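User: Let's play a game. I give you a shape written as tokens, and you guess the letters that built it. Ready? Here's round one.
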């Protein structure tokens, strides 16, 4: 008996991911986008009835064709294609457990290798530019004071945008050592220290907005003009508002995630151990954090290349040396002069 695709996909997206694996809404939304694209591809390019689709109809060859379609017709990069493939493979890992009779077909899909993607350099804001960035909110206005605290907390904690949006008063501890509790991916929490200056700004902000008190613990820390919790889009708007003319090292524009990159690079350049940076950023794997070290090294190398030529003028032209052995013998002779 064939296995109904829509039934398994609905159970996977609607129950397994949010309730058992406890992944974030953003991840589920990204997975949904992948399967929308796949189903539309099956309908429009393969003339398949998506309302009567079975798991057995999704072969590894079809997935290979789908990935090629993403590249050639939709112009997707290898990194984007890999994200789509990851979502598909994750689903078929679930399918082979729920429907053991599909193990062979699932295994072929799980064997599809991800494409090699060129990792871009991590763009970040230099210390001087960061000071300029933080000086831009107009602190004579209530909204400007909020923006300054928001940007300061984002930089100090290296938090993701959604983590900032989700902070409640309960998550803030102003007593020494001041820290903020963040709810990260997979609903994992971590506590991140904040510097005294940021703690002082935060305390003034909370007092001004009457956010200190046992009855305010469930209130969101950052709100809009309607006193509603700031959304990801709202935070992005605030960052964009102050980013005009801010120059990045290794990047071209200031995005919400740039403040997270900036904190990581500044910690690294200050000599903080990668293990501590990993914990602050909430990375599951140290290899994710190591990308900052690799990016920093690459930027230093490029800076050295621009500062002075690294190629000596008199380099042996190997392909034009007709007597390489003679040259090697000659250069290896000891010099007694």
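Assistant: Ready! My guess for every position:
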């Amino acid at each position: 008996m064939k296995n109904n695709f829509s039934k398994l996909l609905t159970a996977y997206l609607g129950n397994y991911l949010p309730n058992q694996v406890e992944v974030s809404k953003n991840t589920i939304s990204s997975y949904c986008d992948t399967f929308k694209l796949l189903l539309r591809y099956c309908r429009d390019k393969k003339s398949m009835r998506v309302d009567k689709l079975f798991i057995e109809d999704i072969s590894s060859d079809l997935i290979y064709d789908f990935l090629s379609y993403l590249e050639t017709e939709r112009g997707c990069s290898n990194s984007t294609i890999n994200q789509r493939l990851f979502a598909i493979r994750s689903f078929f890992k679930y399918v082979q457990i729920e429907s053991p009779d599909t193990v062979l077909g699932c295994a072929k899909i799980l064997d599809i290798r991800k494409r090699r993607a060129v990792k871009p350099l991590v763009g970040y804001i230099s210390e001087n530019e960061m000071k300029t960035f933080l000086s831009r909110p107009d602190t004579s206005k209530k909204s400007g004071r909020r923006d300054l605290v928001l940007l300061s907390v984002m930089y100090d904690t290296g938090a993701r945008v959604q983590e900032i949006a989700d902070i409640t008063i309960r998550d803030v501890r102003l007593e020494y050592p001041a820290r903020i509790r963040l709810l990260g991916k997979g609903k994992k929490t971590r506590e991140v220290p904040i510097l005294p200056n940021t703690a002082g700004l935060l305390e003034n902000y909370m007092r001004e907005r009457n956010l200190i008190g046992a009855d305010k613990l469930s209130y969101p820390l950052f709100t809009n003009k309607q006193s509603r919790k700031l959304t990801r889009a709202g935070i992005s708007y605030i960052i964009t508002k102050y980013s005009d003319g801010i120059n990045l090292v290794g990047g071209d524009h200031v995005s919400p995630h740039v403040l997270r990159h900036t904190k990581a690079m500044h910690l690294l350049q200050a000599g903080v151990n990668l293990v501590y940076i990993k914990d602050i950023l909430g990375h599951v794997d140290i290899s994710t954090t190591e990308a900052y070290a690799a990016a920093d090294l690459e930027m230093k190398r490029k800076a050295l290349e621009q500062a002075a030529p690294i190629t000596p003028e008199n380099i042996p032209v190997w392909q034009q040396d007709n007597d390489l052995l003679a040259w090697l013998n000659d250069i290896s002779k000891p010099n007694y002069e």
